[in-house]
Amino acid sequence: MQNKRPEFVPDQAKWRIASAVAAVAGLFTLVLASLLIINYLQIRAADPLDHPELLKLREQLAASSENDEALVEQIRTLDLLVRKAFFTSQAQLRVGGRLLLAGAVVFLVAFRLAARWNPKAPSPGGAPDRLGYWRVLAQSRELITGVAIVLVLVTLTAAYMTPLGIPAPGVADESTEGTAETDTVPGGAAARVPTWEDMLSQWPSFRGPGGYGVAHFTTAPVKWDLQAGEGIRWNVEAPQGSFNSPVVWGSRLFLSGATEALREIYCYDTETGALLWRQALPAFAGTPETPPKVSEDTGYAAPTMAVHGDRAFAIYATADIACFDFEGRLVWGRNLGVPENHYGHASSLIAFGDKVYVQLDDSKQPRLLALDAATGDEVWAAGRKKISWASPACAPTPFGFQLLLASELDVDGYDPETGTLLWTQEGLDGEVAPSPTISGDVVFVGNEYAMATAVRLSGSNEAVHSEIIWQWEESLPEVASPTSSDDHFYIATSLGEIVCLDKNTGEEVWLHEFEQGFYSSPIRVGDRIYVADLKGTMQIFGTGREFELIAALDLGEPAYATPAYLDGRLYVRTEGRLMCIETDAAH
Amino acid sequence: MKLLKILPLVFAAVVAVGGLAWAEFRFPMPEFESGYEYPEMHTPFPGRTNDLWDVVLLAAALGLAAWFVLKRRSRPAVLGLTICSLAYFGFWREGCVCPVGSIQNVTEGILGLEVVPVAVLCFFLLPLIFALFFGRVFCAAVCPLGALQEVVAVRPVVLPRAVDRVLGLVPYLYLGLTILAVATGSGYLICQYDPFVGFFRLGASLNMFLAGGVLLVTGLFIGRPYCRFLCPYGVLLGWMSRFSKWHASITPRECIQCRLCEDACPYGAINVPTPDKAPLTAKEGARKLGVMLALAPLIVALGGLTGLLSHTMLARIHPTVQLAQRIAGEEAGLYEGMTIESEAFRAGAQTREELYAEAHAVRADFKWKSALFGAFLGLVVAVMLAGLSMAGRRDDYETDRQACVSCTRCFPYCPVEKDDVAVAEQKT
Fold this sequence. Notes:
The structure holds two protein chains of two kinds.
Chain A: H1 12-45, H2 52-63, H3 69-116, H4 131-161, H5 196-200, E1 214-215, E2 230-237, E3 247-249, E4 252-258, E5 263-269, E6 275-280, E7 306-308, E8 311-315, E9 320-325, E10 330-335, E11 350-352, E12 355-360, E13 367-372, E14 378-383, E15 393-397, E16 400-406, E17 410-414, E18 421-426, E19 437-439, E20 442-445, E21 452-459, E22 464-472, E23 483-484, E24 488-492, E25 497-502, E26 508-513, E27 523-525, E28 528-532, E29 537-542, E30 549-554, E31 564-566, E32 569-573, E33 577-586
Parallel strand pairs in A: 1-27
Antiparallel strand pairs in A: 2-33, 3-4, 4-5, 5-6, 7-8, 8-9, 9-10, 11-12, 12-13, 13-14, 15-16, 16-17, 17-18, 19-20, 20-21, 21-22, 23-24, 24-25, 25-26, 27-28, 28-29, 29-30, 31-32, 32-33
Helix pairs in contact in A: 1-3, 2-3
Chain B: H1 2-18, H2 51-72, H3 75-92, H4 99-110, H5 118-134, H6 137-141, H7 144-152, H8 161-167, H9 169-183, H10 189-192, H11 197-201, H12 206-221, H13 225-229, H14 232-242, E1 270-271, H15 282-309, H16 311-314, H17 319-331, H18 340-347, H19 352-388, E2 398-399, H20 421-427
Antiparallel strand pairs in B: 1-2
Helix pairs in contact in B: 1-12, 2-3, 2-5, 3-7, 4-5, 4-9, 5-14, 7-12, 9-14, 9-19, 15-19, 17-19
């Protein structure tokens, strides 16, 4: 086969025949296509399931109280008929399609032949337009530039005009059953990351900044009279049915509450005690319809919230975790997978840097999670050997900040940035609820039916070495977490004992027995220690080598939560009240 | 004559609409209360051939095409092979496996999302390798999509060169979108919007038929519109062909500047000789090029920024986002009734919250990938502008190696014979 030189000689007779064939084939396809379009539209309209007569009969059947066999038979017959009609039309459509294709092929061939027999010869004519070459290049540049600009403008306009139109993650739309409508922060705007210095002047988590039981301010009130209203700035009703402790940042105080069906966050004005807002969490992906079983004294909102900058974080027994801004708008929320935990999830949250940490103690897969505080995305996850009901601390050590966690077996130190396990020491046993504390380079944990253990850290930031320096097995905490001073550790037990132990030797410095036990954790405020007993008396005593009771002040009701200690103020949650106690305040 | 001019338009419209004949219908199966169990669905095995045999055939077809184009210089032979390829790779193999679509598999392989089957990898690489040595012989006579368009290109006209170049941006856009879709798990855009596979399989969605119909209509008068202005694989083939060792030339010997071939190429792939005198001095030209190159990073950055700002819109190509939007719209009362997808979703176990969360995660995934997509397009524009600012020297009529699909249409127009000694002497 070689190229045949084109001769460009018309053949009028053949061209006429080819044109005629092309015209007939074209007309044929045109008519056929019109018929097919009508058929197609009929099929689209005649959905067998939506046939009006059939629907009417079905409604009749549904309305009739008796089993009308005749009506059922009528429906069956009509159903069969409309389905037959549908499939017949579809078969016609297919046959018609093939005929159409054949018509198109004939047309195409005829049209090509017609073009061949009526050729258009090349006609270069005239001198080549050499300068036009540059003009075309310039035109091309201008056109490409213009099109690119238009493309950018059109894209940006289209992008601006086409929002996603999907509710933000973690926000149920209005029709979500069982959840309240929740405002969201558009786009989950990022907040400024608070520094450790920022945290020190707040009460951002359970047991204060860093969560190890030491207050930064030393000006907490030492006298008040609840009955007379002296020293009470405000006293309001607290959410019922949950045991978490207040957290405070600036002029906002947060508590969480939950029932089987509802998970809420409460935000109070620290100046007036006014409830500024309460927000219910929506159901997230994975939120169980039936909540997990929890014990009565744990409840669905045992974990204390964390507040960090202008974001507040809460977690519940369902492992629903949510981040709200100070205006009550949901920033993000998610379910972390319901933990299998026989008392119910109780570990509190703690935030540090740009992360919020979750000790998610599922008995099958206990783990420590670091979530991005801005988005809730998981940054890292570290496995744990055993579970506990204690809460993580994130404390300054001589070797940098460390996450300190207690489990039923051991006490561990993690790098908050990477989740690397820096050290671990076995020394715990039983069902551990008290959380760790620290004094200098010594970490201290304890639990009833186990031993209180002091672990000294040494080495360097890169290679932290740990060793148990002493253990104590006399009076041990069941619920309340210990606190520390420069020289001592302090234990508060459920039986009402307060034990002061020497930090370096473990020697019992003193032991004092109160009438009531302690669930609320002791907090060191300068050279004083505050701890509320189960009857509702705030015991205040000195940190010295001799026991010195400074005050025993009535809170009016049993207290299980740990108060927040700020500059000249004390925010206390008792069984049913939330109050602000302030030096020299009058109700 | 007038009739013949009008009829193609009518015909083409009819072909496009006639595609409705095979448009797919879906409706739920009948409900039985008698305990009847639906028969289990079976997917038939692809029994017509095996993929490795296709690879062998592809290699053979490519070899033949290269021989016909470069050695035999035979348009009839190339046309014959084109029809055979259309019959086998198109109608018999129903357009799959296809090198154009293989871009998606290879992208998945590069991103570590899926393992690329050997046959698919061969389909991706073989035409590119051949293009690197012999030009776009795959487009000339092997690609079923190109073949279909070649067959219907009855009265192709030459587009203005500037328009041709601007439309040449679209394949890059399509290529970028395709890769973005694969990288974000949005699916195989090329397969979803393959305009001709519906004809090969005699069955497709209405949109596919319409797209194919429109392209065939256009293809009657504007040669190979898909190849030139859409095909993402053509972009890669063009890059390879630009540096091909051997490439189809209009004349077998030396150009005698007869200009008979000037309008022979309906695909705008013949470069004319450059004028002797440039409108700018070398210094001015260099300065202009320098400005263009200096602007390039800005153009790329602008593209990236546009992509970044458009990521929400681009995320709509993802089926999860589409479904979430539909569901959210239905909940808000924006739509009446349900689509099959939304009905299936509502019958499933996934909650709306889960779907919305998934959709938002998809959108987040689009963010930087969209920026990269935009930057890629910015780079293409910058390179195009820089290329148009460079003055090359050309004395004869030559094929544009990147654009030329080696269809051999121009060969018969050249009066120079392969062994035409007289002409050679005359030229000398």
